[in-house]
Amino acid sequence: MTNATDIAGLPGRRSSHGSELVLAGLGVALACVAPFWLNGYGLYLLTLTAIFAIVALGLNLLTGYAGQISLCHAALFGVGAYATALLTSKAGWPYLVSLPVGALLTTAIGAAVAVPALRLKNLYLAIATLGFGVVLQKTIFEWRSLTGGGGGLSLAPPTIAGHELGATGLYYLALAFLVLGLWGAWNLSRGRTGRALRLIKESEIAAASLGIHIARYKVTAFAVSAFYTAIAGGLFAYLVRYINPESFNVGLSIGFLSMIVIGGLGTIGGSIVGALFYVVVPELLRGIKDAPGLVFGVVLVMVMVFMPQGLWGMARRFLGRR
Question: Is 215 domain-assigned?
Fold first, then answer.
C-alpha cells in the first residue's frame, strides 16, 4: 500500500487546466457587464445558463473525471430547489441561509445514493441512479402536505437584508456561485482528488494498487456533485418562481449529461460551453417546429462520434492548445 506521495505524483493536466481557467475568466468578465446590454428575457436566459453551468461543473466532476454515470441529477436538482424553497417560504429562513443548508441536505442524499451503488459501473450504475431519481421525484410528488404535490409551489421573490432580489440581483448571485464553483472545480481537479478520480476512471485496479481508497473517492465525487447541483436547484427555484415535481424528470437528467458530453467530458470550460449550447441553441431555433430537438440530437451524435473531447476540445485544438 502506497502513501499520499504516490498519489500526488500521478500525472496532472496543468497546461490544459491553465488554458481553461484563462478563457473561463474572460467569459466571466464578459458576463459581469452583460446585464447592461441584455433585455429582460436575455437576462433570464443568461441566468439559466449560469445555473445549468453550475450543474454541469458538478456532474463533470462525477462523470467526466470519476467516470460515474448518473441519471438522478434532475431529482437532486429538484431536491435542492424544494429544500431551498421550503426553508425560505415556510420556515422563514433567509434565502442566503436556505440555499447552502438545502444544498447540504441534498449532499447527504447524494452520498447516500452513492454508497449502495459503489460496486456498479456503466449501464448498471446508470439504471441504479435512474431508479433513485424516480424514487426521489415520486417522494416529492407524494409528500403533498409539505411540497404541494402535483400542484407545485409558487414562490415570492427572495429578499436579502430586507431588499427584494430582482432579476439582475439573482443573475449576479448565480454568477457569483458559478465563479465559486469554477474555483472549487479548478482546485479539486488539479489536486490530489482530481488525479485520484481520473485514475479511478481509467483503472480501479491500478488506483487500488496505489493506495487510493476507491469507495471514499466515489462517495466524495457523488457528494460534491450533489452539492453543486443543489445550489443550482435553489437558484433555479427563484428564477422561475414556480416548481413542480414533474419538471425534474429523467429527461432533464439526460439533458444534463448531454451538456457535458457536448461541451467536453473532464473539462471545466466544457461545462460552460455545454450549458450555453443547451440553453441558447433551442432558443435560436424555437420558431422552427421540432428543430431544437432535432439539431440537439444530431449535434450530440456528431460530438460523440467525431469530437469525443467535445466542443471545448475542438476549440482548444483549433487554437493550438493541447
Answer: yes
